[in-house]
Each structure stands twice: as C-alpha cells, then as structure tokens.
Specification:
about 90 residues, mainly beta, Hypothetical Protein Tm1070, Chain: A, six-stranded antiparallel β-sheet
Length: about 90
C-alpha cells in the first residue's frame, strides 16, 4: 500500500509573523524547488522567494527573506508552490 503525504501547492493562512520559523520537509527522492510568496492585507505580495530543499531532507526557511523585508507588526499568509511533493509547517 502506498500513502502520499504532502502537496505541491499550499497556503499557510494562520497569520505568521516575522520571526516565526517555517520548515519545509521534502518527502520526495528529488530536490524540491520551492517558491514562497508572503501576502498581507492592504499590501502588495512579497516574492516569490525561491529556495531548493534537497531530496528527502528538511530545511528551516528563516533565511529566505531579508529581515527588513517584512514588517514586524504585520500578520502574513504564505503561498507555497513546489515542483515536487513537500510538507510545510511552522
């Protein structure tokens, strides 16, 4: 039996703030090329920011965006798109 875990497109809509740590788990046997776009009410989207997560590895994405790019008092939703199956969590 085979069980697929993860997705190629997802959104983190729970109101992330700068300083929250975002993790990507690449559950596939191929490198994952991931794009992150940060969205906040009343502001232009920031991104996409691109990162590669090695095959069958996890990566904390706290270094993808420059620290001054996101307002510390703003809640952000994050759109995540990958070319292979990943799991994203905070």
């Amino acid at each position: 039996m085979s069980t697929v875990v993860g997705a190629r497109k997802m959104a983190i809509a729970e109101g992330c703030i700068p300083g929250d740590r975002l993790y990507v788990d690449n559950v596939s046997p191929e490198n994952a090329h991931v794009e992150l776009t940060f969205c906040a009410e009343g502001e232009k989207p920031l991104g996409p920011f691109r990162v590669t997560v090695p095959a069958q590895r996890s990566r904390a994405l706290d270094d993808v965006v420059a620290p001054d790019a996101l307002s510390p008092d703003t809640f952000y939703a994050i759109a995540v798109v990958s070319d292979t199956t990943i799991v994203v969590h905070t």
